[in-house]
Write a structure and sequence with these properties.
The complex is a heterodimer of chains A (210) and B (59). With 210 residues, chain A is of the alpha/beta class. Helix content of chain A is 43%, strand content 13%. The chains are: A alpha/beta (210), B alpha+beta (59).
Chain lengths: 210, 59
């Protein structure tokens, strides 16, 4: 495993200054930026009637505006470099969610932030296709991992059983299965794909709504 | 099929890289030869533990 080239930076996706500084540092160190993946997110539970203004501001700041500012910093670095051998100048990728297109009451601010990410993806894809910059998102279904597990299942163990019945493939998705979609979207096999929301959900958007 | 061809030496920056999805994504990309820079809120204890688990060098 090629861990030697991996680095960790302390960054709050909701802090545009930190995001911009990090992207600039990476581009400077490596003289290249092939892809940015806006994956950080938060997801407090609650419907419109429960959520405070503070909840909305926090979720949109981190999940949506954070991704927009990450994209902005990434685009600037990418526009300053030449396309690679495959004629791709860069890739802007986001972690969305199946609830971005299929409302799931109970985490309303989170759903809206993911709906926003889907549109952000399409807007960037359209605007920057002539620059040979691709923009795509992965929309995970219900995972027994990440925020769903942390936020919902630990609060309400019954939900775990209930949600499983909504998945045609019968099993919860894994983080590795979502990672596989990102690998594809970073690879040369996806060079003609842009503006796409890749739903990886075991079929749950085909069936009942949660 | 040799999926993910063309990933060698690609420079990729990911936020939330210490979480489940971000960590798995960073690991797979790095395994395929990409140069991955992960970012996260490392002041959280869980994030620190995750970073150690992934074996990454902090800077």
């Amino acid at each position: 495993m090629n861990w030697a080239l991996r680095r960790i930076r302390k960054v709050d996706q909701g802090n545009p200054g930190q995001v911009q500084d990090s992207i600039a540092a990476v581009a400077k160190e490596f003289k290249r930026l092939d892809a940015v993946i806006g994956n950080a997110g938060i997801g407090p539970g609650g419907s419109v009637i429960d959520l405070t203004e503070r909840d909305w501001l926090d979720v949109l700041r981190v999940n949506l505006i954070g991704c927009a500012m990450l994209a902005k910093a990434g685009l600037k670095a990418m526009l300053a470099q030449e396309p690679d051998a495959e004629m791709i100048r860069g890739r802007i990728l986001f972690t969305s969610s199946w609830v971005g297109d299929f409302p799931s009451p109970g985490a309303d601010a989170y759903c809206v932030s993911k709906a926003g990410i889907n549109h952000l993806t399409r807007l960037i894809a359209q605007k920057h296709a002539p620059d040979h910059i691709l923009a795509n998102a992965v929309a995970p279904g219900i995972l027994d991992a990440g925020l769903t597990s942390k936020a919902a299942f630990q609060r309400d163990p019954e939900l775990r059983k209930k949600f499983q019945s909504y998945i045609p493939l019968g099993e919860y998705g894994t983080a590795g299965q979502i990672a596989d979609a990102f690998v594809f979207l970073c690879s040369r096999e996806s060079n003609y794909l842009t503006g796409h929301i890749m739903v990886v959900d075991g079929g749950c958007t085909l069936t009942k709504r949660v | 099929m040799d999926i993910a061809r063309g990933l060698k030496d690609k420079v990729i920056f990911i936020t939330g890289g210490c979480g489940d999805i971000g960590g798995a994504t960073a690991a797979k990309l790095a395994e395929l030869g990409a140069r991955v820079v992960i970012s996260d809120l490392l002041d959280e204890q869980a994030g620190q533990a995750r970073a150690r688990e992934l074996g990454a060098a902090a800077y």
